[in-house]
Design a protein that fits this description.
The complex is a heterodimer of chains A (164) and B (105). Chain A is mainly alpha-helical. Chain A is 72% helix and 0% strand. Chain A has two domains: 119 residues, NADH-ubiquinone/plastoquinone oxidoreductase chain 6, subunit NuoJ (Four Helix Bundle (Hemerythrin (Met), subunit A), Up-down Bundle), CATH 1.20.120; 44 residues, no CATH class. In chain A, helix 1 runs antiparallel to helix 2 and helix 2 packs antiparallel against helix 3. Helices cover 74% and strands 0% of the residues of chain B. Chain B is built from three helices and no strands. The longest helix of chain B has 31 residues. Classes of the chains: A mainly alpha (164), B mainly alpha (105).
Amino acid sequence: MFYLFASIIVVFSILTVTSRRILRSAVFLLFVLIATSAFYFMLRYTFLAAAQLALYAGGIVVLIIFSILLTSHISERFKQIELKKALGSALVAIAGATLSIVTLLQYDFHQKAVATMEEVPMRDIGLSLMNYGKEGFVLPFEVISILLLAAMFGAIVIAKKKKD
Amino acid sequence: MIQGIPIVHFLIVATIMFFVGVYGFLVRRNLITILMSIELMLNSVNINFVVFNRYLFPDQLQGHFFTLFIIAVAAAEAAVAIAIIINVYRRFANINVEDVSDMKY
């Protein structure tokens, strides 16, 4: 099961950056995000998986698809990328990936016994979001709420039509 | 459900996803596809946080909450970026990065 979702993630993320039709690559991105939330379900972080589905797969992808429909023709294909640039970027990406994977394989993780795969109760999540003591997250929670408000105002102000 | 899968396999998948995002960021010429590559990279970092939390520190919740906050920041970032992209489109009738260079010189 894990390897199925892992291969979905790898194949569709490659298709996302190589597809020459923009709407298709948005749909491939959607598949990648859904497979990621399947990972979270497997790790028994159900709340996180639901947030991922609702915000990423439901919110951001829809926003991206709307803006694609507003700014480009659907049947339009991208120009072929110059071979030199594609090769250079692929070289950078592959070099970075090999470096990281080799480092990962050499490092010895002190993995705890994964027998404790129980679900995090919703009550604990809510309590630590509202808690200001040790392991409390009320400050980032409030900062995020102000950030969301600011982003909302910013988006409205930027995209507003000028009167003239 | 996930018993027996070593942590390294998750991390390798996340690494591949991250560098695919880097490749897309370097190669693509359309602002929206660049934004999509950034989303790929953010998402792979999220997987890393969650997996470290679950495998190495199962009695704490730090990685879980960081992922939650990253998702919120990504949503805000996508909203503002798309507002900017729509504004750029209105001004230049085009969202290719090569054509939007008025402020460069």
